[in-house]
């Protein structure tokens, strides 16, 4: 849908990722007049190979080259397409851990977020997204995590996915199927119920207008103004606070960004664990959760080359041995030390994030434990990713990993961002109330990853969608 001029709608949903698509579907199916505004292009899931350079070019902001600045930069990725993060993520699905929900209730005074409160919303979304475990054997690279954990007596699990599997497995015996992203599920349902989608439309500012809001946007070079009675902000943990601050709403907005800082290693095994269609591994190790978690990452040759950037001269070995290699990650629940701020004259925000000394120690500890796990699983060689690293060939060499990384030493990345507009009734630290309504600003509701009070220690899409469903129903007066 393209348009020039002024539009009127009952509800505008800014952002079409898991939070926005969930919101739009529910409101449209309840008969509300809904327009979905999405900055990125409208591309089918099949427009490019998953986890490819083409996907990064098409569907990531800035091609995936985004740094959070601070004492040491942290590289992160952010989706910019219809369907948001669900179009580029692994589709791994968790419910929010009870300990995390309890912490949010205690520290932020969040109401109605006990497991029993959220269970109906989790169940409804899980049914709609075909969430479940693989119907056959997971990839060997994934199973190595479970094997190593068992050898050490650590707890691991196969994480369910939002995935629809084919009846027949692939040539390698591993089940294949289709990621149940928002363009495959909730967005088509919203559109069938009458919602309208405006893609390639960047919202620049919100302005209070009588009984509602005026949304100033641009679709290409065409300026657009949309008037709405209510605006749901679902643009993600960076773009939502950016838009609020540009619109003069600043109280507790963009002051408490959290993330899952992540370090990686490459493990090399005697047997082949990798192949062209490896895709996403499904095992995670939660022995030390929620503070520390381990998993297996995308391990295609380009990703392997990037993970081995600290090892000059390894290219010939990589070409010969990549099928024996896989990338594994260790992540921690980072602190709420990030700041999101607009920059005059630039479309994207300034993002600053600071890791504390305990965080840097925990990242080192996590990398050491992950290396020990992979060696217990049979890795013949482990390549840690940090400046000055060397290949490790046995348990007695793990001590070569520093006991505490310096800010400029570790190659830290993240794919999960949260907490920039935390929810709760404690107005000294929360930007919105327990159902996403911006404190003191009628008609503005946040309904995305910004709400999460802290980093949850698990893949966040399940939590985001459960909260979005609850908040949309609360808005309708049905809870």
Structure description:
With 479 residues, the chain is α+β, with helices and mostly antiparallel strands. The chain has 2 domains: 231 residues, FAD/NAD(P)-binding domain, CATH 3.50.50; 176 residues, Cholesterol Oxidase, domain 2 (2-Layer Sandwich), CATH 3.30.410. It is built from 11 helices and 23 strands. Strands 1, 2, 9, 10, 11, 12 and 23 form a 7-stranded mixed β-sheet that branches. A 6-stranded antiparallel β-sheet has the order 6-15-16-17-14-20. Helix 4 packs across helix 11. It is globular, with a radius of gyration of 22 Å. It starts with a strand and ends with a helix. The mean pLDDT is 94.
Write the layout of secondary structure elements.
Layout: E1 5-14, H1 18-29, E2 34-37, H2 53-59, E3 66-68, E4 74-76, H3 98-108, H4 115-128, E5 131-132, H5 140-152, E6 156-158, E7 161-165, E8 177-179, H6 186-192, E9 196-198, E10 201-209, E11 212-219, E12 222-233, H7 236-246, E13 258-259, E14 262-268, E15 283-285, E16 292-296, H8 301-307, H9 315-321, E17 325-332, E18 339-341, E19 350-352, H10 357-376, E20 381-384, E21 413-414, E22 417-418, E23 444-446, H11 461-475
Parallel strand pairs: 1-2, 1-12, 2-9, 4-21, 12-23
Antiparallel strand pairs: 3-4, 5-7, 6-15, 7-8, 10-11, 11-12, 13-22, 14-17, 14-20, 15-16, 16-17, 18-19
Helix pairs in contact: 1-6, 1-11, 4-11, 5-10
């Amino acid at each position: 849908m393209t348009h020039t001029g002024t539009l009127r709608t009952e509800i505008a949903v800014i952002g079409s990722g898991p939070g926005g698509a969930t919101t739009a579907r529910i409101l449209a199916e309840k008969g509300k007049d809904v327009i979905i505004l999405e900055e990125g292009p409208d591309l089918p899931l099949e427009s490019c190979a998953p986890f490819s350079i083409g996907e990064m070019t098409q569907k990531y902001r800035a091609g995936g080259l985004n740094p959070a600045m601070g004492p040491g930069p942290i590289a992160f990725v952010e989706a910019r397409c219809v369907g948001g993060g669900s179009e580029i993520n692994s589709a791994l699905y968790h419910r929010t851990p009870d300990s995390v929900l309890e912490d949010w209730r205690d520290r932020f005074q969040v109401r109605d977020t006990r497991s029993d409160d959220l269970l109906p919303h989790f169940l409804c979304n899980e049914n709609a997204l075909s969430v479940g475990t693989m119907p056959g054997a997971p990839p060997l690279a994934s199973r190595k995590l479970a094997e190593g954990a068992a050898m050490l007596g650590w707890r691991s699990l196969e994480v369910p996915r939002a995935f629809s599997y084919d009846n027949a497995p692939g040539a390698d015996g591993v089940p294949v199927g289709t990621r149940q992203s928002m363009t495959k599920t909730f967005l088509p349902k919203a559109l069938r119920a009458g919602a309208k989608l405006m893609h390639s439309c960047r919202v620049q500012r919100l302005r209070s207008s009588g009984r509602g809001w005026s949304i100033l946007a641009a679709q290409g070079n065409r300026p657009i103004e949309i008037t709405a009675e209510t605006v749901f902000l679902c643009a993600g943990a960076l773009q939502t606070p950016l838009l609020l601050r540009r619109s003069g709403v600043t109280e507790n907005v963009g002051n408490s960004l959290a993330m899952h800082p992540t370090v990686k290693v490459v493990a090399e095994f005697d047997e082949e664990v990798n192949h062209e269609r490896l895709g996403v591994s499904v095992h995670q190790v939660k022995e030390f959760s929620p503070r520390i978690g381990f998993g297996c990452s995308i391990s295609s040759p380009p990703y392997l080359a990037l993970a081995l950037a600290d090892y000059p001269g390894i290219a010939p070995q990589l070409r010969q041995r990549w099928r024996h290699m896989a990338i594994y990650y260790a992540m921690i629940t980072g602190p709420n030390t990030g700041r999101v701020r607009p920059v005059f004259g630039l479309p994207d925000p300034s993002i600053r994030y600071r890791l504390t000394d305990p965080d840097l120690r925990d990242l080192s500890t996590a990398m050491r434990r992950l290396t020990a796990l992979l060696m217990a699983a049979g890795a013949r060689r482990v390549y840690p990713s940090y400046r000055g690293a060397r290949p490790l060939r046995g348990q007695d060499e793990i001590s070569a990993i520093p006991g505490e990384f310096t800010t400029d030493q570790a190659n830290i990345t993240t794919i999960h961002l949260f907490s920039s507009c935390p929810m709760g009734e404690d107005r000294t630290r929360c930007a919105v109330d327990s159902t996403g309504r911006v404190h003191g600003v009628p008609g503005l509701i946040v309904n995305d990853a910004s709400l999460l009070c802290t980093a949850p220690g698990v893949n966040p899409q399940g939590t985001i969608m459960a909260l979005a469903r609850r908040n949309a129903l609360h808005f309708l007066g049905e809870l």
